[in-house]
Amino acid sequence: EVDRHFARAVDMAIAYARDLSAALVDLGPNAPAPQILLEGRVSLVGFESLCSGTFDFASLRPYAMANQDFAFRLDLLDLKMGMLEVDAEANAQLMTYAVMILDTYDLWSKVGPIHLHIAQPRQFFGDKFKSVVVTTADLAVFRDTLVRTIEAIEGGAIGYVAGPHCRYCGRLGMCPASADMLENIVRAIHSDPAAMRSDVLGWVLDVRKTFESFIKRAESILKDRALRGEDIGRPLVMPRKHRQWRDPIAVRTEIAAAFGIVGLDVPTPAQLSDRFPKDDTVSDIISRFAYTPPGEPTVGTVGDKRTRYTRPTLESIWTQKTP
């Protein structure tokens, strides 16, 4: 739940990230520019479908080396909203993100010190902000261990274990341990809740947010894949938005002339129709001034009757005009 305490915690994390950003300076035309990276999607090269994620905040701070060349200091910040203390030292998740950043952005030979930060503003008893410094050599060793672990899992030497962590895994529903999980969830959803025990219904309520988060993430991934041109087995459709005024100033004059002071605050087409139902003047104004813009691409169902999404071409982008 987002309340004032949650908002305050986020503000504290943003202030910490802002302090990291304040140290970014431009070293001149011959130096690489400092960079801030937000909500970046990264993966382990060679194992993209098995090891990927989205980091919260990272920055690249250029600095001059003794040989007159330049390198970057990498700062990586992970925000934790829980109250159980999390340490930055030997934090496998942070180190995995750091490795994936170096892989994705090809920074292995361009980065010097890597500063890993944990922001945990809702943690009461320990430090709310912790950091540790590692080197690319440290991360190279960790990457080798990570790759060997993935290969061992894929080869069957290490077994999968299902649990709450499955919600973060790209192998959910595909690995042996979770193969029946999605099928069982779908079967439960299509069952009659009245026939379920109270404890089962209570469990459904307990995990509702997890399901909602997973479904939202699944839809986002499908949409991204479809926008890249991949065949996702279902259409990308264009839902309709509410009608909008083409020229609010012109329609304000028209409405004011017809209905008086109500025109000083131009209602939407839907609001005008509701306010003056079955009015011929309203119908005339709407027909002349309103239009229905296309919505954002949305993943539809198989057999969806809505307009199919068409990927824009360079020519269509340049020639696009406002109605």
Computed over alpha carbons, the radius of gyration is: 27 Å
User: Tell me, what's the shape?
Assistant: extended
* Helix content, binned percent: 25-40%
What's the arrangement of strands in the largest beta sheet?
Answer: 1-4-5-6-7
Main sheet overview: 5 strands, mixed
Low-confidence stretches: none
End-to-end distance:
40 Å
Number of strands: 11
- Approximate strand percentage: 15-25%
Order of helices and strands: HEEEEEHEEHHHHEEHHHEEH
- What's the helix count? 10
Average pLDDT for all residues? 84
The chain-level structural class is alpha+beta
In short:
The chain is an alpha+beta fold and 323 residues long. The protein has helices spanning 4-22, 92-104, 136-155, 181-189, 198-206, 208-227, 248-259, 269-275, 280-289, 314-319, and strands at 35-38, 41-43, 52-54, 57-64, 70-79, 111-119, 129-134, 236-237, 244-245, 290-291, 298-299. Helix 2 crosses helix 3 and helix 7 (248-259) runs antiparallel to helix 9 (280-289).
Question: Your description of this structure?
Answer:
- This protein is 39% helix and 16% strand.
- The chain has 323 residues and is of the alpha+beta class.
- The longest helix is centred in the middle third of the chain and has 20 residues, at 136-155.
- The model has no long low-confidence stretch (mean pLDDT 84).
SSE blueprint:
Elements: H1 4-22, E1 35-38, E2 41-43, E3 52-54, E4 57-64, E5 70-79, H2 92-104, E6 111-119, E7 129-134, H3 136-155, H4 181-189, H5 198-206, H6 208-227, E8 236-237, E9 244-245, H7 248-259, H8 269-275, H9 280-289, E10 290-291, E11 298-299, H10 314-319
